[in-house]
Every structure is written in C-alpha cells, then in structure tokens.
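Minimal example, chain plus iron/sulfur cluster.
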Amino acid sequence: MMFKKDPKATIKRKYQPTEKAQKFLDKVENPKYDRGMIRGLNKFIGNKVPEEMQGFYSEEELQALVDLRDTPNDVEARMPVKITNHYFQIAKNSKPIQTLVKASPAETYDLEGAPDPGNQMTYSPLEGLIHKYELGLIYVVDTCSAHCRFCYREELIARKEIRREDGTVSSKGTAQIPELVEYILEHNRIVKENGGKHPETNREKLREILMSGGDPMVLPNKKLAEWFSALADCGIENIRLGTKELAFYPDRFDSTFFNMMDEFNDIYPEVQLRLMIHFNHPDEFLQKDKNGNYIDNPDGGLVWIKNTKKAVKELAKRHYITVINQAPFIKGINQDPQAIRIMQRELKRNNVNNQYFFCGRDIVGHKAFNLSIEDSWNLLNESQKGLSGVESTARLSITHYLGKTEVVAVTNEPIPGVPGTENGVVIFKLLRGAFDAPLKGKVAIVGRNPEAIWFSGYEDRVIYDEAGLFKKSMQDTSSVS
Ligand code: SF4
C-alpha cells in the first residue's frame, strides 16, 4: 500500500479527538519555557548574545566562519547554529561539549556524503513518516533546543531539498495527525484481513511509533498530548519519543509534563512510553569540581547536574516509562573509553538503559565527525572492560541501507588458511531489516581496514557475505556518493 503525496493537500486537516482523548487533553497544562536560546551565528558575530556568552567563539573562529559565508562551504547552510543557556553553561567548561555545539570550518572542508542518509525517502509512504522496519518513525518537528554539529537529520533541520521517489525535489516535511492516523488504521486493517501480515510488505500490525524530528520535546505539552492520544486511539501500543532535551534543557521535564504523562497513563494504561534519550558524554549530566573532575557522591555514584538528576529521578518513578540511551561516537566528542565507561555506569545506576552506540552516518560532511568503524568498536570494547553485565548492554551499530547492522567483533590475528584475514577481520551482523527483516541475523566478514568509516571502505576485502552488505547491487547505494 503506497500513499502518494497529495499535491492538493496544502490545507491542514485538524485533529478531531475522541471523547476519551478530549477528557485527557482538557487536563493538560501548557506553560511557556524560556530556554535562553541563541539561534544563528549572527548573534555571536554581532555580539548580540548575553555578556557571559561573548567570547564563546573567538574572533578568529568567527572570522573563519564568516569567510565561508555564501560559498559552497557555508557551515550554517549545512547545519544552523543553535544553543540553549543550560547547554552553554556546560559547554563553557567542557571541550567535548564545545566541539558538539560550536560550528567549525572543518565541517565543510569535504562535503562528501548522502543527501538522504539511509535512503529514507524510499520508505516514506506519507509525508513525515518512514515505514521501513516493523515500527514507524515520524518527524513531528524539524528543530531541537540546540543543534549538534554532527546531526544525522541535518537535511531535515537545515530544510535541504531532497530528491523523492517520484523524481520531484523538495524539503522534508513533518507528519500530521489526521493523515498518519488514517495510514495506521488502513495498514492495520489490511494486515488483519490478511491473517496478520501485509500482503505487499509482509509486515505485521503497526504497534510502535517513534516520534522524532528534530526533538519532540520542543513541542508544547498540548501538542505532545494530541500525538499521544491520537496514536493510542488508533491502536499504537508503544510510543517512542526520541529526545536530547535532558542534555539541552532538562527543566522541560517539569511537573506539568509529568502530570500530563500520568493523566495519559490513567486514561490509556496499556500504552507504554519509551523515551530514547541521547547523551554523548558524561559532561552533559555530571557536575565537575574546579579541577574538572567528576565529584563522588558520598551516598554512591557521582554527583549529577541538579535539574538533570531531578528529571531522571521523576522518569524512573513511572512504571510505564522506559528510558534508553543511544548515541553516536564522534571525533573530538566522546572518543574516550573512560568517559564512555563512566557514562554507561552512571546511566544504568539511574535507570537508564544503554542500548546502542552508533558509528556516524554517511551524512554530508561526515568525514569531519566519523571515527573509523574499527576505532569505534575498540572504543566500546575498551569502555566496557570492568563494567558489569547489566551495565554493558550497549552494542555498536552502523546503519546500512539494508537495515540496522551490528559491528560484532574486530579481531587482530590471521585465521589460518583463510586468505584476506592477515590483519584480522571485522564481523557485521544485520540486526534489523526493511519490511519483515528477511536477512536478520545474517553476517558479513571482511578483512580489516583501520581507515574505513563506511561500508565502502571494505568493498575490496569481503571474505564472506551472507547478509548481502557488499553485494554489487547494493554498492551503488551503500557506498558514499
Ligand atoms: S538532538 Fe538529534 S536531531 Fe537534534 S540536532 Fe542533535 S542529533 Fe540532530
């Protein structure tokens, strides 16, 4: 079932809540938040930022960025600059966090990369929806409270024009409630009528939706609540929400947010919320002393930034919310096994599960950010030495166009009698795949290439490939173009 983009669909249809949903929506409070956001380099260039922020970019740094303006290497055309006051307070005492949030000319020295990472448009049957796996991913907003320079949604946030399946070119839009609800109901109706599988894709019922963007937590409570009730009313059992707001603006997790969540749980008790959070480095949530060291908590663990701790504690109190961290490994930000070890340990202690670390995606300009695949694996492996089994549950993932893939192992010794293994091998395993994941669990084994930052770096040294990660037919799309 392919829903085509309706060219006449310019008039936004309004969400019509059910009686049950209205009962919930009537109770939602909608406060305003002051994130102290600075949008755009112009504010820094014109010294229009608060006094304490002046000097965050040196004059030389600003000049180098100004020199790139209106050239193909303009850094803000690639990704607009944005920072909250809370994140600035962390960044001013943290080099990794500065690297995460400050624009740098190095980002655009090499603009190689995929304009639509993961070929998402191939799996977009409806504006703002990606239905590639068993779950649906929706873009509900196209910005965040601050912007990570390495963002893997830079094409959405910078509103770049993307070539679509039908050959037209336009920027990506966000999902709308009425259209999405129709899609889910129709998909699930067809699945039911066909004995539990969709006849074209073999997918099962849509049970889970990932609200993403951008960061849904920049939306007001009322809008979040509308999404929650609409999804619940059309049969969604698990709502995921991807957010970095615990790092950028933890005060967003205030009593009105939790009241809204509790009301939702009262009215829709069977719907689970999975909060997919995004901490890249422990500096984003731990306090430091004047020497830059984390502070031991006499009662156990380390001392957290107060409002972040408060938010995480409130989340942990709620049985219907699961909190899961996922983050990419990025050059100059978290290439530090000790920091990654501390992060995994502290998060688990505070009821946050460690799920994935990612190799950077092949976004435009990715060479400025991505660690090599083998360095990433070594980083995670090193970081997990000394962690307990429950603390070291995170896996290293890289997203192939066929699906989410785990970097399972990197070896150092030759395998006797197997050509191509002289320097050891890298083993990949497909964790998920498009449609009903027919290749799940299949592996590929390649000879090592310590420089490789993407699958294309292994194309000349494939030893075994039952997963098809390096098949010729995939090379046009799996290599960085
Ligand atoms: S929080 Fe996520 S979506 Fe937002 S700028 Fe960072 S990487 Fe991009």
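The two ends are 30 Å apart (CA to CA). Residues 19-30+112-369 form a domain with the TIM Barrel fold (CATH 3.20.20.70).
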